[in-house]
Design brief:
It is a single chain. Helix content is 27%, strand content 24%. It is of the alpha/beta class. The chain has a single domain, classed as Carbon-nitrogen hydrolase (Nitrilase/N-carbamoyl-D-aminoacid amidohydrolase). α1 packs parallel to α4 and α7 packs across α8. The radius of gyration is 21 Å and the shape is globular. It starts with 6 loop residues before the first strand and ends with a helix.
Length: 358
């Protein structure tokens, strides 16, 4: 039976950042968007913290030894109106593709407060969703601030309803359910290149590859959606930077399991190449109509639930450090005007959006 639901090709980029260089990482993203578009992709996903790279040093040495790395990462943190993100947005528009990209986000309110963020960009270059990781995981708390739920949204696009979560958020059943409850059809999961928890020669360390396989399959199966998994990989530049700062860091990660990139269907089956050790792009053809049949078996946001027993409330309000109430003088009257530190960024974002539209 014919279906009017979207069909398209998805691309999961398994790639390395240009370590701690936001401008060059953004340029690399634009090149990969162009490559994926030439290969017919309509959705291109990039790894967690792709711009400007994942702060793996936080796992490998004491915080008192890592001030230089933190300063370097903070200096490369991006705001929404940055030239680097604008360049990626223009590439999405130029190639008529949806792009998901991870980045370390900064703020005008503090030079040292940064977030692990992800941006979903529409085919017209517009910002469809802006998500900050709700809870940095384990040693990531030494780097990134906790986000809020502003980005727990599913975006309606011409290729389906798209949601996204960052790394460990894919372990959070309530975060995942919040996207299921919005009719998610295509899920994007992003991960770092490695995630060490013990020296690699010790037993009991975290197996990032296996964890990704479990989480990706679970969400696809439970949500009955496609899952685009994009993970980073380590390159020579990243290893050199770590080794020059502290050679012991390279010894600690020798043999640590690498992340994987892949694409899964609504039954949890892998339908693309699985990429791990070297850079590449995993592709798969997506037919959103395939989300329908599995819903007959268990639809946890429909008939396969007990809403009289369970309830979930999600507060998606933005958490700002302060709200300022000023008096604006008009003709013959004064009225209070409420603003936050974000107001200084929004006009510039609007200006850039108009430039992209033109």
């Amino acid at each position: 039976m014919p279906s009017n639901l979207p069909r398209f090709k998805a691309a999961a980029c398994h790639t390395s950042s240009v370590f701690l260089d936001a401008a060059k990482s953004a340029d690399k993203a634009c090149d990969l968007v162009a490559e994926a578009a030439r290969d017919g992709a309509s959705l291109v996903a990039f790894p967690e913290s792709f711009i400007p790279g994942f702060p793996v040093w936080a796992a490998l040495q004491a915080p008192i030894m890592s001030h230089d790395f933190f300063r370097a990462l903070s200096a490369q943190a991006l705001r929404l109106d940055s030239a680097e993100l604008t360049k990626v947005r223009m590439a999405a528009k130029r190639h008529n593709v949806v792009v998901s990209i991870g980045f370390t986000e900064g703020t005008v309110a503090s030079l040292g407060c940064i977030w692990n963020s992800n941006l979903l960009i529409g085919q017209d270059g517009s910002i469809l969703n802006h998500h900050r990781k709700l809870v940095p995981t384990f040693y990531e708390k030494l780097i990134w601030a906790a986000g809020d739920a502003r980005g727990l949204r599913v975006a309606q696009t011409s290729i389906g309803r798209i949601g996204m979560l960052i790394c460990g958020e894919n372990t959070n059943p309530l975060a995942r359910y919040s996207l299921m409850a919005q009719g998610e059809q295509v899920h994007i999961s992003t991960y770092p290149p490695i995630w060490p928890t013990r020296p690699s020669k010790e037993k009991g360390g975290y197996d990032l590859r296996r964890a990704i396989e479990i989480r990706a399959g679970a969400h696809s199966f439970e949500a009955k959606c496609f899952n685009i998994v994009s993970s980073a990989c380590m390159d020579v530049g990243m290893k050199d930077a770590l080794g020059q700062a502290n050679p012991a860091m390279l010894d600690l990660i020798e043999g640590t399991p690498h992340a994987v990139s892949m694409i899964l269907d609504p039954t949890g089956q892998i339908i693309s190449e699985v990429l791990s050790d070297s850079e590449g792009i995993a592709y798969a053809d997506i037919d959103v109509a395939q989300c329908v049949e599995p819903k007959q078996f268990h639809d946890v946001v429909g008939y396969y639930n007990r809403f009289d027993v369970f309830s979930l409330t999600i507060d998606r309000s933005q958490r700002e450090p302060a709200v300022f109430i000023d008096m604006e003088t008009g003709e013959g009257d004064e009225r209070p005007v409420q603003s936050s530190q974000q107001e200084t960024v929004r006009p510039r974002v609007a200006e850039l959006e108009r430039a992209v539209a033109d």
